[in-house]
Amino acid sequence: MSDVLLTLDEVHKLVVDALRANGCNSENAAAVADTIRAAERDNCASHGIFRLPGYIASLQSGKVNGAASPVVRQLSPGVIQADGGGGFAPLALQQSRSALAEAARNNGIAALALINVHHFAALWAEVEPLAASGLVTMAFTTYKPAVVPFGAKDPLYGTNPMCFGWPRGDKPPMVFDQASAAMARGEVMIAARDGEMLPPGVGIDSDGLPTTNPSEILDGGALLAFGGHKGSAIALMIELLVAGLTGQDFSFEAAVTDNNDGGPPNGGELMLAIDPSRFGDSEGWLAHAETLFEKLNVMEGARLPGDRRYSSREENEANGISIPASLHETCKGFLT
Amino acid sequence: MSDVLLTLDEVHKLVVDALRANGCNSENAAAVADTIRAAERDNCASHGIFRLPGYIASLQSGKVNGAASPVVRQLSPGVIQADGGGGFAPLALQQSRSALAEAARNNGIAALALINVHHFAALWAEVEPLAASGLVTMAFTTYKPAVVPFGAKDPLYGTNPMCFGWPRGDKPPMVFDQASAAMARGEVMIAARDGEMLPPGVGIDSDGLPTTNPSEILDGGALLAFGGHKGSAIALMIELLVAGLTGQDFSFEAAVTDNNDGGPPNGGELMLAIDPSRFGDSEGWLAHAETLFEKLNVMEGARLPGDRRYSSREENEANGISIPASLHETCKGFLT
Hints:
The structure is a homodimer of 336-residue chains.
Chain A: E1 3-6, H1 8-20, H2 26-41, H3 52-60, E2 71-76, E3 79-88, H4 89-107, E4 109-118, H5 123-132, E5 136-141, E6 147-148, E7 162-168, E8 171-178, H6 185-194, E9 203-204, E10 210-211, H7 214-218, E11 222-224, H8 228-246, H9 251-257, E12 266-274, H10 285-297, H11 307-311, H12 313-319, E13 321-324, H13 325-333
Parallel strand pairs in A: 3-4, 6-11
Antiparallel strand pairs in A: 1-13, 2-3, 4-12, 5-7, 5-12, 7-8, 9-10, 9-11
């Protein structure tokens, strides 16, 4: 199967057109397309146009409101709430970002509780604009049960990513974004296809026993959290920060109400923004952190987390990206 | 070697007397003794009276000011700074806790930047009082280089614990406290003594190669972060949140200035406190979170993180705890 070359603006237009043809208004379509464009620009195919069929499915099933109008409220001096009205998350995030930033600059720290949204994008794309504007930023979201609590045999926690961004002045911010699952399900599927064994700690079989055989994980088994009981505790923390704090569904609750159309369930997200200039080292903090990054950069074999994403950005903006021809055909099919 | 039985109040008095005989004033001595008493009460011997020789050493060397008077300032509506004045951390924490709680209740979220302190205690003992008062609480601190960044061969990050507390109304809060290192150095030493191999992912040998031999880790090797690159990213995040934000030493900087007397280096700590009643689900959040804990509690093999600490509390309060006679002799030696 051959690949199709698209400029990033062509990616954006294809996504906007497909979403609009399936019930999105132009604002919501553009916001989703922005996140897909950013993913393709940074070679993150798993959050790129590959996700369009899922977005479309959840519009076609009526689960997601493609014409949702987010409502942004200030619940307290340091807490912004954005009610996405049952739409996709990106528009609610775009419309509440400035309120979160303003609250963080006024108070030193602030939180954004995103509710009633369907989240299907990468957190790094949401954290990067705030970190680039000088705010230390964290984000957390849940999903449906996919990760087994340490010691148990059945999934309870979502894949539950967390994301952290640190501003670097004129340089792109340091942003890492990592799931609580030890490995993405797609990677396990690739290992099964290729007949390769996995490292220990990735999953369990249908009896709840540890296995390094990817087929046993996929066939009635389940994924573990990264790092044993410590990653499991982080997955629990994310359930509490996202759903516990904001009144949204825990992953296990989202699974009960979701229609399994292939798109994202309804849920929430929590973002925290911190203004480093309000913490007592307003002159020095930026240069100080660079001394740590410099230490890391000169260590053989080490790498600044998230750095790889930036490496292809310029080239992809100039030359475009390629997607599988079959995916391109599928996406074009959404236009009519 | 036999053990010596002490009531928890005897532990507290022994610690106070030893610290006062070595330069602590009564306020600082009592604050440190509170954290040691809490550790012994919860069967956390590694942060209990076992640490007293380190505290004493850093008083005797003059590194720590045993008569420090913390200064608490509000840097912005959501940011409290507590300057420990070169003393141990516990007094600065005790004196700034109410300011952090008040800022969190006023704003919904607030931060405490603890600076110029010597931190040698467990974070859970600091988080629990705030979580018990109804605030979601997080804490982070650094140390000296002990953990190798993912892919590198030499330590750069501290053991870098993070702690998270969730209020549970009348029940004790859910509090977990975990180091960024895959395993405590003491546990590696015990495995070496017993001739046991370690699981993969704990450490590297002196050539920077992965090893499961504890002796190779101790003999010029180093500890890895838990969970591979994801735990390593969390260790980096903690360096930035603690030292980057507050202007305190990164772990690699603390190692340069520390006198290696066996006590803790000078450094900082970051605490975050969140008032869940300000996030839009003020009526329901407490009961909602209990539904998740209930799901976890009925899963065979699973356990609520931190639960084990509470199990022995009542018995130890009633019957006291035992410490090695040699340690007791050492501690009594500090009294004269």
